[in-house]
Known about the structure:
- The complex is a heterodimer.
- Chain A is mainly alpha-helical.
- Chain A has helices at 16-41, 50-71, 75-107.
- Chain B has 16 helices and no strands.
- Chain B is globular.
Amino acid sequence: MIDPSVLRPEIALDDFLPIFVSSALVLVFGGFYVGIYTAVKVKLLKPWTMVFAYMFWLLTAYCLYLMGSLMHVGEFTAKALVVAAIGLFLLPYAVYYMQSQVHEENEH
Amino acid sequence: MANNYLNSESKQLATWYFTFAAILFGAQLLFGLVAAIQYVMPGFLYGILDFSIARILHINALVVWMVFAMFGAVYWLLPDETGIETIGIKVGKLLFWIFAAAIVVVVLVYLFIQVGPADETTIWFITEGREYIEAPRWADWGIVVVALGFVANLFLTGIKGRQTGIVTVLMADMIAFAGLYLAGMFFTDNISIDQYWWWWVIHLWVEATWEVYVGAIAAYGLITMIGAHRKVVEMWLWIEVAMLFGSGILGLGHHYFWIGTPEYWWEIGALFSALEPLPLVAMFIHVLYDWGKTQGAEEEKGSTVSVVNNKPAFTWFVLNAFGNFLGAGIWGFFHTLPQVNLYTHGTQFTSAHGHLAFFGAYATILIGMMYIAVQGTNGIKIMKHTKASIWGVSMIVSGVVGMTVALTIAGYVQVLVSRAQMGATWAGYFDGQSGLWFTQAMDWRLIMGAVTFIGFIFLAKDLLTTGKNPVHEK
């Protein structure tokens, strides 16, 4: 008989797998977002494929939300996850802008 | 690897470091295999080379071979970056032999002495007992002397020669890298305080200074292998330094959740751990951007030729971008928040993350640097893949990914059975360990470990022989 005081009921047993899968997908979808964004910008992909980049960012944000909900994160961690989602959205813009500015300055 | 194409003593010294690193890499895999067999057959080598010793050798050889290869890579790129021969190279060579001899003695002591009395003599002469940095104290001081000599070589050369962004970042990074080692050299009576400082070495190495080092080496590799624009690459490097240190230093908090430190580390650890994947995603963009831009510029000129002048090395560098993202990013992120880390802490999840992250983030790029050294040592203009290089990379990658998947399944069983269902009790631990999924996962870990080791044999053969292979353009 297990002492009830040592059991950890914070996360339901059935929720562990969705937590691990959704947290992995956060970065998988995030990777697709920045990958497609960059590939379109450097003309490796056609411009209309950019819509897929934004779709992947939406999926990333949803996975973050799902992961946080299933984990029952506190208010602070929830805000941290929102900051991470916004950071991920802005990241390729900021990096591409700076890279292209340096290219402009040095090659044209 | 050395021959008469080398025009620099620094590069010659680099080849020594790479050679010794490759030997230790083999030792790491060999003792990892022994430990993996012991998980499946606990009686294997019992009383001769127990699991505790095989594990010490496995994880310490990992750290040491990477440090050797890191030093080697710096000695390799210094003349190219600074435009001068490395200053104090004779001291550098002497320190190499001291370092190598110390490591050989430490390994022999681990193998043949193994344990000592529970007093200061063990700490001084056998092992300090802290994971990853278990070298006895005499060797600790030797390592400090060697590291100081290395940093002095780097600084003197960097100050006198051309000061590129890559060298400047390496100078700042390597002094932090060497200095942090000091935090793991003293003991306190309180285990929480002891672990608090120990994490400074481990975390601030692998999630801060080593990652910045990888950024600098990737920058050098992109310039060397595909002719990427230095200003773009170096500008990117500074962003990466800011992002990695900005998220990585306080990401340290995720190691402080359950070791007796104050609870405010939960919030700090959660926030910065959530941000830690961002630079890894950005590093992924970096490689894609530089490759796309450089190859695109060639294609605009009507050329269909690849801009890559060292295919095996570039393959390992691309694997680094993916591996860092997967191993450090994904496998790190899914057990880093305190709410779920409560269940995953100390399970095979950690081991899965450790295997893929060390391989993806560090082993890949250091092997890539070894190929760059082979190219330079043999005067090869365009280096191509050989059968051995393809077999090597395929088997090592498949093996490590296979081990990671197996360990993740084992960790999942531990989370559900040992932690969630049975509340991290003694009985829960054994129930988790004896479950079918766990034991089968350990079988698969052993099989994939063997695949990795065979891949290493192909890699070693290729590194030793590819320089003379007529397939390359000289």
